[in-house]
Amino acid sequence: MKQNMLYLVIGGLVVVVIALGIYVYREQTRPEGVELKIDDKGISIQQN
User: Which UniProt keywords apply (predicted)?
Assistant: First the structure.
């Protein structure tokens, strides 16, 4: 039973590390400046 709990904790930590890596990658590759979106809700302008 304790070995299964250890695998669960290690698996959870792996998932957290992967999610954090994806978040950091997306934040660093996001373009700088002004983002302009035109869709069916209208026009939105967001400064990055």
Answer: Membrane, Transmembrane, Transmembrane helix
